[in-house]
Design goal:
Blueprint: E1 3-9, H1 11-28, E2 34-40, H2 44-52, E3 59-67, E4 78-82, E5 92-100, H3 104-114, E6 120-128, E7 141-145, E8 151-152, E9 168-173
The structure holds inosinic acid and magnesium ion.
Catalytic activity: IMP + diphosphate = hypoxanthine + 5-phospho-alpha-D-ribose 1-diphosphate; GMP + diphosphate = guanine + 5-phospho-alpha-D-ribose 1-diphosphate
Protein name: Hypoxanthine phosphoribosyltransferase
Family: Belongs to the purine/pyrimidine phosphoribosyltransferase family.
């Protein structure tokens, strides 16, 4: 391996902050018709821990998209590999994502989900790298803002590895 992994956010820090975000969501979605849409696969650990602490009646659904990065095309950047199963019409939809980087993935996903006429559509992301934005994208619920580093763990991968780590680490080239 030509890289090492350095711990950036510990398991304890993650769990404390995730509980705080869960309580914000719980307060804001009282009496609403909440459906949480996780983006596979990166959001799975976060979504599982987050929603265990949201004491509300809510539904869960999933989407899988593929991102095309580094292309010249700034439109149609994502391909929908799996659509949600539920009818989102009139629902309060909360997208659950692992990280907002350029913002291109969420821009496309939001545009796509808006065509399903939800009552509201917001974004909850565990991590945010605002310095990398190519389009304006603001998440309503953010766990941690991080610098421009490639991170892995807790759902995030490097070539499909490390999603099972209970903490967030950064990849450091040797
Ligand atoms: P965006 O479209 O550039 O905002 O990219 C979002 C997607 O890129 C995320 O859902 C991740 O799958 C991936 N991604 C961006 N930054 C990282 C990172 O630091 N580690 C792992 N995956 C990342
Ligand atoms: Mg992802």
């Amino acid at each position: 391996m030509d890289y090492t992994i350095e711990k950036m956010i510990s398991e304890e820090e993650l769990q404390v902050r995730i509980r705080e975000v869960a309580k914000e969501i719980e307060k804001d979605y009282q009496g609403k018709d909440l459906i949480c849409v996780g983006l596979l696969k990166g959001s799975i650990m976060f979504m599982a821990d987050l929603l265990k602490s949201v004491e509300l009646d809510l539904a869960m659904d999933f989407m899988k998209v593929s991102s095309y990065h580094g292309g010249t095309d700034s439109t149609g950047v994502v391909k929908i590999l799996k659509d949600v199963d539920a009818d989102l019409t009139g629902k309060d939809v909360l997208i659950i994502e692992d990280i907002i980087d350029t913002g291109l993935t969420l821009e496309s996903v939001k545009k796509f989900l808006m065509t399903k006429q939800p009552k509201s559509l917001k974004v909850c992301s565990l991590l945010d790298k605002p310095s990398r934005r190519k389009v304006e994208m603001v998440g309503e619920y953010i766990g941690f803002e991080i610098p421009d580093e490639f991170v892995i763990g807790y759902g995030l991968d490097y070539d499909e590895l490390y999603r099972n780590l209970p903490y967030i680490g950064k990849v450091v080239k040797k």
